[in-house]
Amino acid sequence: MTVRFLDLARQYSAIRDDIDAAIAWVIRDSAFIGGTCLATFEEAFATFQQAAHCVGVGNGTDAIEIALEALELPPGSDVLVPANSFIASSEAVTRAGHRVVFCDCDQATYTLSVEDVSRRITARTRAIIPVHLYGQPCDMAGVMALAAKHGLRVIEDCAQAHGAEWQGRRVGTIGDLGTFSFYPGKNLGAYGDGGAIVTNDEAMAKRCRMIANHGRIGKYDHEFEGRNSRLDGLQAAILGVKLQHLENWTARRIAVAALYSELLIGCPDITLPVTAAGARHVWHLFVVRAQRRDALKAHLAEVGIESGIHYPIALPKLAAYAYLGQADKAMVANRIDSELLSLPMGEHLSDENVRFVAGKIREFCGA
Asked: What is the pLDDT of residues 96-127, one digit of tens each?
């Protein structure tokens, strides 16, 4: 048996007719930039995320940069970012003209440690970027309490958490702004790059849209210099089709995660992921920890099981951030990056696939 980590070809084959029809419509209508498909998707995604406004942009990294610019923070502000994330969460801060301060992750959920955030807030701190990692919402009650106490702005990085919820609220609507990626491998993925910003603040949504479209409202009417970062019509049409299936796909991911947990509980050398109380985890990734991670990954590959590592180097240990001097700090993120292993996850997996993967892991661990 071969078990794919992700199977986008199989996903496409299941909705081929609708995808092909959507693409054909955009081509016939020449609605490549802007147009009906984009407006329809923005409205639909805002409704799905329970937000008042959605602005489609070029990719998830642009979404964070644009959100930071829209907040109009003082130049060189400190922005708190989790140490366990993809570099997009931090590079957007630097590229927007601010200073990254890495905060540790929670040992159980791997999301931002609110306790560590509280220790790192200074007079220079102006914003927090909690990342809803692997599909697991961050402790937004704790984040928002700190933000209110210290007068900080909050951008939720929801790149891996489409449809996730914290205490009954969809992520992206709790802070000032929420940013999303539609990279092809995401739970809701385009057939190329794409991203979005959601917010309940009309003025903020307008500013984000202007920044993303050369600082203009009307054609050739530029109020300030912006940038070019737009979700194109083809990607919007594709995402509009996929959005109709996302809840069913998410339900299957949740079922797969539950079966993995049932089959792997008590397995020596394996630390299973948990779901925080009050969270709706949408399982973009199913990440375990293993002391012999690399050997386990090789064992799975030998029997036809694909796996991944998210992420092999904690952000403070990257050469890009050597100047911060956090690489050798006693942080959970710096310690667990050698143990993290992502198992196959997605609606393409059958129960038989999951049982096969779990069986091979138990075999490796001598369970």
From this structure: 999 999 999 999 999 999 999 999 999 999 99
**Location of structure tokens 């959100």:** 67
- Tell me the whole-structure pTM to 2 decimals: 0.97
Using alpha carbons, select from 138, 134, 88 the residue that is nearest to residue 113: 138
Cα angle 140, 96, 169 (rounded to 5 degrees) comes to 20
Q: What are 165's two structure tokens?
A: 């919820």
